[in-house]
Amino acid sequence: MASNILELTGVSSYYGDSQALYEIALSVREGTILGLLGRNGAGKTTCLSTIMGFVKARAGTIRFRGDSLTGLSPESIVRAGIAIVPQGRRVFKSLTVRENLAVAVHSARKLSKASWSMEKVFDLFPRLRERRDQYAGSLSGGEQQMLAIGRALVSNPLLLLMDEPSEGLAPQIVQEVELIIKMLKDDGLSIVLVEQNADLALRLAEDVVMFSTGSVAFSGKAEDVSRRPELIDKHLAVF
Ligand SMILES: Nc1ncnc2c1ncn2[C@@H]1O[C@H](COP(=O)(O)OP(=O)(O)OP(=O)(O)O)[C@@H](O)[C@H]1O
Ligand SMILES: [Mg+2]
After folding, report:
1. pLDDT band for position 113 (50/70/90)?
2. How many other C-beta atoms lie within 10 A of the C-beta of residue 72?
3. Å from CA of 177 to ligand 2 middle
């Protein structure tokens, strides 16, 4: 059985005095996808921000490949092998496609066997190659998402955190994003996939964690969730 590449135990985070995460426990098995689901405001983004070190965990431990990430800067966490595709595909809009990738390549270290170069990202996303000298702000939503994914890949991560990669994209583009995620997994990458699109997450993920108001409300296999629609109704449906 695959070992855990990432393990959170008892992780609590705050924004000022306001607690956003309550003793989160979750793990990602090496080479698999963990789907992280939950309603708006459940704490999904906060969880990814805490893993990246943008938000400091005030309690608990986060272990990556067995080592604690406590106290590490986001830069060190990226160097350790974790990358994030942020919610809302935040690319540098006033930089070109090529510049967006070049900024990220600078901090890259050869960790994974995949070894992503800018050229390899362009092979994966030929549309980005065609638009490499265009400002990122002038790209379509789908193209910006691909650039955000490409930017995360050139740091050669072992673990990729993806925050709602399908959000606000046309169905056809969502299909493309799904294929890319599947391909990255087949390539050996471990992934935390935050999604509001439960169907998409359940097709891709082996394991699922559902958050409800900052706590883990469910943790189990994706196939079990698929068989129990009441779980989706309880933790994800919008009333
Ligand atoms: N920068 C911040 N400052 C203060 N509170 C915040 C901040 N970011 C998030 N919160 C609060 O923390 C809680 C969790 O928010 P978070 O963004 O992690 O949820 P989410 O599950 O990612 O939601 P969504 O699906 O809308 O992206 C919410 O109550 C939110 O209002
Ligand atoms: Mg979010």
Report:
1. low
2. 17
3. 18
CATH number at residue 124: 3.40.50.300
pLDDT in tens, 10-25: 999 999 999 999 999 9
Q: How far apart are CA 209 and CA 88, in angstroms?
A: 22
Is the confidence at residue 5, as pLDDT, over 90? yes
Residues with C-beta less than 6 Å from any ligand 1 atom: 15, 20, 38, 40-46, 87, 196
Transcribe 118-180 into DSSP letters: HHHHHHH-HHHHHTTTSBGGGS-HHHHHHHHHHHHHTT--SEEEEE-TTTT--HHHHHHHHHH
- The boundaries of the domain holding residue 50 are 4-235
The reported pTM is: 0.95
Q: Please tell me the total count of domains within the chain.
A: 1
Separation between Cα atoms, residue 26 and residue 34, nearest integer Å: 9
Over residues 51-72, the pLDDT tens digits come to 999 999 999 999 999 999 998 9
| Tokens at 50, concatenated | 């805490």
